[in-house]
Amino acid sequence: MKDFWIYTDCHAFTPQSLGTENLLNLDRKKVLELNAYSIGDNFDRKNCTPEWKESLEFEYAKHKEIFRDRFLTGNHDVMHDRYGIIKADNVLLVHGDFVWGDERSEEFRASDAYQGYGIVKQTIAWMRHIIGAFYTKSDKDKCAELAKKYMCDTLIMGHKHPAKLIDFMHNGVRIICCPRGYTKVTL
């Protein structure tokens, strides 16, 4: 059995920040000891207000350096990039916005940063928390296909903000979706 510590969707520097105290107190040694991975949207450029920009950029750069090859961007990083992957043995780690499809994912990642977090976004976040994450057959198929493409039997992702860890099998692939913050996954 192997443990993975997954940091995802903390959305630091927004009113909806979660798990940030743990995120900001890491160093490279601790990341390696924990077998930790940062899989996106831990620092939220999209919804951060301009007055927090300098602090966010400082912590983001530090975080990226600490995690290095264990770091992925998410759609709220707005880095004008494509989603990435990390392969750790037979486990594929992704942020998860690939389930939207390339066009929507890339469009969101290319949008403007530092827009703030208004009432509409607060309402959507509240509704997502109440409803929880959901998976269509298409989402499940895309997860399984991506894992198989990289010859992995397990896919770990964030992005969907479930209230608790979701773990299921689909087309021979174990799919694990982590809740916001940091989560220990034992495989």
Q: What strand line-up does the widest sheet have?
A: 3-4-5-7-6
CATH domain class name: Alpha Beta
Could you report the average pLDDT, rounded to the nearest whole number? Answer: 86
Strand content: 15-25%
Low-confidence region ranges:
none
Tally of DSSP β-strands: 8
Over all CA atoms, what is the radius of gyration? 16 Å
Distance between the termini: 5 Å
User: What is the total domain count?
Assistant: 1
Structural class: alpha/beta
Overall, the morphology is globular
Keywords for this entry:
globular, five-stranded mixed beta sheet, 6 helices, Purple Acid Phosphatase, chain A, domain 2, alpha/beta, 20% strand, 187 residues, three-stranded mixed beta sheet
Walk me through this protein's architecture.
The protein has six helices and eight strands; from the N terminus they run E-H-H-E-H-E-E-H-H-H-E-E-E-E. It has a five-stranded mixed beta sheet with strand order 3-4-5-7-6, with helices on one face. It has a three-stranded mixed beta sheet with strand order 2-1-8. The mean pLDDT is 86. 32% of the residues lie in helices and 20% in strands. The protein has helices spanning 20-23, 28-34, 53-67, 102-109, 119-131, 137-149; strands spanning 3-8, 36-38, 85-88, 91-94, 154-157, 166-170, 173-177, 181-186. It is α/β, with parallel strands linked by helices and 187 residues long. The protein has a single domain, classed as 4-Layer Sandwich (Purple Acid Phosphatase, chain A, domain 2).
